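ARCHIVE CARD
Drawer: 12
Card no.: 0347
Subject: one protein chain, sequence and derived structure
Cross-reference: see card 0346
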Amino acid sequence: MIKFSGLIDSTARFLQKEYLSDIDVWKKFVEVYEKQFDDTYMGWRGEYWGKMMRGAVLVYKYTRDEEFFKILTDTVKHIMSVAEEDGRISAYTRDNEFKSWDMWCRKYVILGCEYYLEVCKDEQLKKEIITFISRSADYVMAHVGEGKLSITRTSNFWLGINSSSILEPIVKLYKWTGEKKYLDFATYIVNTGAAEGINIFELAYENKLLPYQYGVPKAYEMMSCFEGLLEYYYVTGVEKYKKAVVNFANAILASEISIIGCSGITHELFDHTSARQTVKYDGVMQETCVTVTWMKFCSRILELTGDSKYADAMEKSFYNAYLGAVNEKKRESHKAHELYMNWHNLKLKPSILPFDSYSPLTPGKRGQGVGGAMNLCDDTYYGCCACIGAAGVGVFAQNAITASKEGITVNFYETCKANFGYCDAQITVAVETEYPVNGKIKIRVTADKPTQFTLKLRSPEWAKGTTGYIAYDKVWSDETVELNFDMPLVFHYPQHWEKDVIYTDTSKEINGYCTGGALEVEHLPEEDNYFAVTVGPLVLGADERTGKNPETIFLPTYNAKAQNCEIVEGEKCLIKLKFTPENGEEYYLVDYASAGKDWTSTIAAWLPTKR
């Protein structure tokens, strides 16, 4: 049991109260299945219920709010009630099943129920849920597989990797039931390689290409497939698959993560993001779905390897891209609403969603699109990022302080108190800090009786000195450990590159299946004319409300002084620094997550240095 009193707590409780507890929204998500409404535009509305349930369960694991839990229980019972007599549950009619995003949405029903099973207290309800998701999977397996419809041909998008991501819930179903037929179906999916004509698992195992070079670059869906492969490794023990998953994670770290902890400069794709962060692109970038999926994937690789670099990656994402996307000011994206309505020729009510979908790196504004927007059965709409977002804070809280047979590990530092039953003793770990604003941390460990164990404290990659984990192996009774991480001000500059081949989101059919087309891109000299600033885990961003337009020229300087923590009067930020270059033209930077939260101000993480 852990209780925070900082950003983790306020974010989780905001999402639970304002969005995840909205009974009407849950009913609308189930209604998509009742009316099989995804036949309209061959859409992906069916993903909403399971995506939201996964995040809701992760938030509930932190808050333990019983009224909230009842809402989740009721909607699980509701979704089970719409199954057809043969076990089929789909947001598509039978005439259109196993096309487009049908399998992707079925996957999320099973997966959402499996997450709920982890917290379900009613044994009879557990049995009913397992029967429900088993029958749903059985229906799929009766039509898809060896000698039937190939799973990679159950979607005409992205060579079927969206459909193949059902691997994760199928392996989990095997773990819940022990029925070999589910493991056999998982083996079938793994053997297909997850994509039509491309074996992404073999490519990761061989480790000769980076993910953006695989030929099917959709970031979120590909990571979902590899999370399924990790589940498959856990039940089979085949080391090849462990190596493939770790290779894939390391390749993303090396080539795809932006300074704010997301991926995708050209739409929602792996596209050599780390090198191309200052490329100008008129479309959307840095999708919140990708941020959250990356955080979830890192948490699994952290559990697998114990390597602190994955905790470092989660922290970068959480304090920058993720918190920057939380719509705590409850803005409505008028531009996104207008574009969506023009596209579908619909008249829908403006909606306020819990997350912004896309984040600017070079000068731009928040609130420029609603990712995965689809109209529901009434005159409202929802989006994919709004549904997945809660999982980000949930998984971050879950991994902050963990206990295992190796000891107790502190990965993330916010003021909190955690209680563990450990080695027949009750252990309390209490953290006092103003992190991430400064690196001073006091950790008090108390035990109801003297207990020997190892306490591991993460030393972040940006801190001077030791990085990795600092280990204290001793008998604990009532001890205090103090840390003081130096938070250096660091200036970053774009990686230089000449030419590259990326796969775009432009529609192109390959054997009747839509994927991105290969595109040769060239580096432009002006893409070098930027710099970025970090202090500890925080990216500092320009916000025009601090008095300097982010589209104008900034000069880097180490002459920075802390100011009051406000962007404008009455609007707080985590940190605000005043920079005074040699030419005397001072400017202010604030933490990126606080910048542009009015959704009208121009902000930037990468600052122009010359025209």
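Annotation on reverse: The radius of gyration is 24 Å. The chain has a mean pLDDT of 94.
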